[in-house]
Predict the structure.
Amino acid sequence: MQAQIDILRKEALRKDSVKIYPFNPNFISDYKGYTLGMSVEEIDRLHNFRKTNKYVNSPEDFQLVTQVTDSLLKTISPYFKFPEWTQKGNQQLTAGARLNTSVEKVREQKNVSVSDLNSATKEDLKSISGIGEKLSARIIKFRDRLGGFLVEEQLYDVYGLKPEVAQRALKRYKVLNPPQIEKININTASVEMLTKLIYLQKDVAFNIVNYRDSKGSIDSFEELAKVENFPSEKIERIALYLSL
C-alpha cells in the first residue's frame, strides 16, 4: 500500500504545473514538505532534528532522519542542493555516523583537550598544522566580523583556509561559548541592516528587500533562493542570523 501511495505521489509531482527548483532540504517548510509528498510525521522528524542545530548533508542523511521511503527519496532527492563545502571530502560525519558514534565522541573528548574556538589566540591557531601567521590573523579577523562563531562550520568560510586544515583545527577547537545575537527579522529589516551580515553584499540585500516588498512577505528561508544573486550555498549560515 505504501508503495502505491508513493507511486501516486510521484505521479502527482510529475503532473504538477509548478516547477520544482533545487532547494536545500534542511529548510523544508510544512507546506513544502506536503507538496513534496512527505507525511506530517516525516516533516516533524526533520524539524525536530533541525532544532538541535544539526543539518543533513546528503540524501542518505535526509532519509535516516525523516524515514521517508526509498521511492519518495528517489523522486525528490535529485532536487536537493547542499552547500558546496559539505560535498568536499566528507568534511562532516553523516547523520548516521553522528547518531551511531556518540560513545566514541565522548571517549575522544576525554582523551583530547578541546578549547573554545571563540577564545583561541593567534598563537593557539598557529599550533595547527597548515595555519601560519596570515591564516591565524585572517581567522581572528573573520571571527571578529561575525561577532564570534555561532557554529563550527563557519570556520570553513575563512578565505584561503583549506577544508582539511579546518577539519584538523576543529578536532582541537569547538564553539563552546557561542555569542548571544539578536536575529534580524527579514520581513522588516532595511537594506542597511541586512548588509551588516558578513555573508550578504549590498546588492543582494537590496534584492531581498525588493523581493519581499513585491511579494508582501518572505515565508521561509528557502524562498531566499529565488532572490537574484542570493548565495544559496550559504543559506545555512545566513539563516542563523535571521528570523521570519
